[in-house]
Specification:
By secondary structure, the chain is α+β, with helices and mostly antiparallel strands. The chain is built from two helices and three strands, in the order ααβββ.
Length: 53
């Protein structure tokens, strides 16, 4: 997993933080399963994230 730079915004936050490139295995798309539904997480050419059902 790619190390992320330490930030004061995240140091005191217990919310899980995931690297999108790790989720996509270095590609542009990952599928995510939640409550019987499959979602697609896509990294655009502009480096933004799109989550669709």
């Amino acid at each position: 997993m790619t190390a992320l730079p330490a930030s004061t915004a995240f140091q005191h936050d217990a919310t899980p933080l995931h690297d999108a490139l790790h989720l996509t295995n270095g590609g542009a798309v990952a599928r995510i399963h939640l409550n019987g539904q499959i979602y697609s997480l896509r990294i655009t050419k502009q480096g933004k994230l799109i989550l669709t059902k």
